[in-house]
Write a structure and sequence with these properties.
Number of domains: 1
Distance between the termini: 31 Å
Largest sheet: 10 strands, mixed
CATH class: Alpha Beta
Number of helices: 15
Radius of gyration: 20 Å
Length: about 425
Amino acid sequence: MPLPPPPSSPPAAVAAGIRVPRFDLGQRPFLVLFELTRACQLACRHCRAEACSGPHPDELTTAEVQAVLDDLAALGAPRPIVVLTGGDPFTRRDLTELIAHGSRLGLAMALSPSGTPLATAERLAAARAAGAHTVSFSLDGASAATHDDFRAVAGSFGFTVAGCRAARAAGLRLQINTTVTATTVGELPGIARLVRDLDAGLWSVFFLVETGRGRQLQALDAEQTEDVLHALADLAPVLALKTTEAPHYRRVLAQRAGSGADPARRGPLYHQLAAGFAEQLQLAPWPPAPQPASTRHDGRPPMAVGDGRGVVFVSHTGEVYPSGFLPVATGNVRQQPLSRIYAGAALLQQLRDPVALHGRCGRCSYRSICGGSRARAFAATGDPLAEDPSCPYDPPQGQEPSQLREGVGRFGAFLPGAGSGGGAEPAVLAQPTTAAG
């Protein structure tokens, strides 16, 4: 499938509304995913953590988690968003204590529980009272039959929907996470309707990385991924959404801003999803036109961060990874502060440098706003700097990356006009969770 050529300068990316943090991503993260436990009542087919029924005997203690939060708060403003995840964080008895501690320090605290009987209205209200602002739940099917099959526990769909409603009733912002595989991609239109009906502030669409239990599932191929990204780009004006482990969504937005999109050039999966979105959300004509400022959703444009580049993951035993899907440890918070590991670890420094990327990603004009999924590159090749096999775009041979790279900056300058703000306030979660999402 032919793709449009890249722009020769930054304006297309600016027009696409792509945001990058105002601060130096080489010195502090934008988002910290903190796995408090691997204990979980679910047995999800895609779980990178391979979660288990009980806690690990060497889980970080309350004091150890609080020490990490103290370290992050000491970075000063803008402080990172901290997402407490798992496993299921509701299995930790000290959860509200940890939320309250981070909130008192000025950290933006978010929570990503599993859809189980533990996700009660009382627990969600307690999390809100302790200082949590946002919660994310995972919906991987548009019905109980498809979602519960994916999560491998009967009743999970009902618990998840009830948790979403309870979260909104408690005053929490809601994000819904969805994992896309070759067998579940047809569920996306129905899930989009649920995202709207449940009053979620953001839909995070996660493209499967074949790690953990996810090795048993089938990911979309590159052409199918491209079709899904274009369908999501068409839907974005009316439904706030982002992608995870598909940073080439930002490349798609930049290309479309530069040359427009021709639906006739899309593949069959695009047309299937476009028809499904139009039917489920009653959108006619397709693609939907941008909404007036008074009625459009309050979602923000996508943020140009990724594995190890603004995002960092802390495991239940203190190991620090570029993300939960890229299992290469760069240190442990029991031996060294997270802030020092993030700024100084050699692998994390490489992941933040687009010049270090290999293959098509290394010579792509969009490498600073995209950079490919480093987790998927590692899962496919064992090299976290390799090209992302889920992207079909092939930059012209011999072409140096254009001014787009210099316009964005290697460590996160701000694209003027690319959306308001750039700090770490959690209007909605900036990234999905791991085991629970």
